[in-house]
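Q&A FORM
Asked by: J.P.
Topic: structure of Ferredoxin

PROVIDED:
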Amino acid sequence: MTYVVTDNCIACKYTDCVEVCPVDCFYEGENMLVIDPEECIDCGVCEPECPADAIRADTEGDMEKWVAFNAKYAALWPVILEAKEPLPSADEMDGKPDKLASQFSENPATEDA
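REPLIED BY: S.T.
REPLY: Here is the structure written out as tokens.
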């Protein structure tokens, strides 16, 4: 089992989860985070820390696509080791539907992001 980040993280990018992760398995894109499913140790400490409720166990229904999504972008994006401020749009975008289609950026985070 692993945990994955789902689309509610998009355009929010809260990083509370990063602070509690004991194995540094979060990776940072321009406007969301992902978890490397190969590095995740299934401890579950990140899930309750996410203000956007975007972290799910892969045993929940329909998570196969999110495991693949997280694996793909974890291989492309830089690791994030410390919490940062959420995106300015975080409160407004939290819970908005269809963010994967309308808001997602494939770009990795930059030094100032």
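FOLLOW-UP: The radius of gyration is 12 Å.
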